[in-house]
Design goal:
alpha+beta; DNA polymerase, domain 1; hpI Integrase, Chain A; 3 domains; 4-stranded mixed β-sheet; 3-stranded antiparallel β-sheet; about 10% strand
Length: about 350
């Protein structure tokens, strides 16, 4: 199939033609039709280079259509592509998200790192999913596969890959999200059994719904006592938010207040607890009181559930907890059957008034 050349960008490819070349100024460009869309590639100042590039693109497309990988020299290895992808991820995502991508990318490289992007096929990905499912949870496999799909999509976007071979791959069904509960009696047991510094961060988590990392990053300059709110600047979503405080919690913060650069959560010796030490201390306490099923992050779920019980809407809960969508916030609704039952009873006409014949 012979490509045509045009000196302006207005020409259209003929019926059945999959690409052409054009010159604009001193540079030549290749137009290549991929999945029904025109994609342009710069080929420099040589018409011959443009013709060679077009032929290479068409050849690789034919190989992919036949179920074969494109020529190995056409793309970097997954290891080599990491720097490009992570640079883009850092520009597009919040810090916590791209840090998670960085860790997950390394996991993928253990299996695919030495393969060129064009050598990562659907069959290889499905074999990886099958093998990994016996080692980790379905959710973990899905996160890794989802990242690989994004990595390859970015390669397509950058012209390093003609098509993403993962199209149509289905993720594993995942177990329903955990729905932990915590009543007043167990809450009191946790607070009484833990060291003072842990009791303090548990109270903050339960009555603000903040994440562990957000609480550990809090400095006193982030506490607005005049407005009765915490300013969460280091959020997983990448956006800052205000979390308003109950009167009792605001008063406790007022009594504890330290220097602006001091941390709100600190151990008795002034040292700062790390995420691991908080989680470990919490695990020891919940085992001691007979609730080994609880994790520190569950306190955030409990806070969201209690907000719903108090009459908050899902958008209210999403705002307080810092969720960008209502998808995550919906999981908290399960624990409010009494509230939902009460709302149904309060619907106009629910008492039977207005029924035909009465």
């Amino acid at each position: 199939m012979k490509a045509t050349a045009t000196r302006n960008g207005k020409g259209k490819a003929k019926a059945g033609q999959r690409g052409n070349i054009m010159r604009r100024g001193d540079s030549w460009y290749v137009r290549f039709n991929r999945n029904g869309k025109d994609v342009w590639r710069s080929a420099g100042r040589s018409k011959e280079a443009a013709q060679e590039l077009l032929g290479k693109l068409l050849n690789d497309a034919d190989r992919v259509a036949a179920g074969l990988p494109a020529k190995p020299t056409s793309a970097p290895t997954l290891n080599e592509w990491k720097a490009d992808y992570m640079k883009a991820a850092k520009a597009r995502k919040a810090k916590r998200s791209w840090e998670r991508d960085d860790w997950c990318y390394d996991q993928l490289c253990e299996r695919f790192g030495t393969l060129r992007l064009t050598e990562i096929t659907r069959a290889r990905v499905e074999a990886f999913m099958h093998d990994r499912k016996g080692e980790v949870t379905a959710a973990t496999v899905n996160r890794q596969v989802a990242l690989l799909r994004r990595v390859l999509n970015y390669a397509v976007e950058m012209g390093r890959l003609d098509a993403n071979p993962m199209r149509g791959i289905k993720l594993f069904p995942e177990a329903p999200a955990r729905q932990p509960t915590l009543d007043a009696a167990d809450e009191a047991k946790i607070l009484n059994a833990g060291p003072p510094w842990m009791r303090w961060i548990v109270r903050l988590a339960l009555y603000t719904g903040c994440r562990q990392g957000e609480l550990l990053a809090l400095r006193w300059r982030h506490v607005d006592l005049a407005a009765g709110a915490l300013i969460i600047s280091d959020s997983k979503s990448g956006e800052s938010r205000r979390v308003f405080l109950s009167a009792a919690l605001a008063e406790e913060l007022r009594k504890r207040r330290g220097l602006p650069d001091g941390f709100v959560v600190a151990m008795a010796d002034g040292k700062l607890p790390k995420g691991l030490s908080v989680s470990q201390a919490f695990r020891r306490v919940v085992r001691k009181i007979g609730r080994p099923d609880l994790r520190f992050h569950d306190l955030r779920h409990v806070a969201g559930s209690r907000l719903l019980d108090a009459g908050a809407s899902l958008p209210d809960v999403a705002t307080v907890l810092g969720h960008k969508t209502l998808v995550i916030a919906r999981r908290y609704a399960h624990s409010s059957p009494n509230r939902l039952r009460d709302l149904m009873q309060r619907m106009p006409g629910a008492d039977g008034a207005g029924r035909d014949g009465e």
